[in-house]
# Entry
Amino acid sequence: MYNKGKSPVIILIVLIALSLVLAVAVFYALQKERVKNVKLQAELEEVKTAQKISEAKLAESKKAISNFELQLKEAQAKIDTLTSDLEQEKTARQEESTKVEQLKKELDDQKKKRSDLESSINEERRIASDQKSRLLALDAKRVSLEARIKELEDELEQIKTKDVELGTIVVAPDTDVSVTAEEKPRPAEKTIKTVPVIKTNPVASSRPASSFEAKVLVVNKDYNFVVINMGSRDGVRVGDIFSIYHNAKYVGDVKVDKVHDSMAAAGFSSADMKDKVSEGDKVEAKAR
# Structure
């Protein structure tokens, strides 16, 4: 009986001991879980903090990406503008190159024209030189002829002043001298003289040759003309050409533009004559 009453107590003690062990185990397990939970909470907070930092970085990254995209668009726009400018520059260079080629061609043409013009000028100079030489030769011949005419005039004057009885005069066909029957001499006194044909300047002055000399009266350098002391009564007409001599040196020609009774106005044949002609220079008419 005593053993029967003791058995439940032992079982109860055992149960209490088991409960205590189990409680301690549960307590330690709970403590361990609590520590683990605290640790997990701390890790969670760290994760949340890291997440916030990551989100902030992500936002910054997105903002940076947006800025980069904006900069990329701006860069693309600049690239497009530069590309357009480059195309325009290429087009302009092509146009400039075309213009340069055209200018080179025109320059070559101008050089060729200049060469041809220089050749023409040289040819004209050669012709002018030949003409000048011919003119000088003609001037020399004219001076010689004038001297010969002067000699013939002197001879004629001497013939006229001789106190001799003239017989039959044989006259050249160009003269207007005629012989009447009353002038014919007797056969014994017949004398034959030949009078040479004298060709004088076309402008025949009505003034005495011994007292008259054609010369320049006025030189007008502003309007490029001279006034000579010969006019319509001397046979001068508009369009007549006169040569001017300064100190016996040929200066040039003048052409009559206006005629009065005793004087005439004549224009220079060249502009540089106005500096070479002076009042009193000798004037001689040219053949019409």
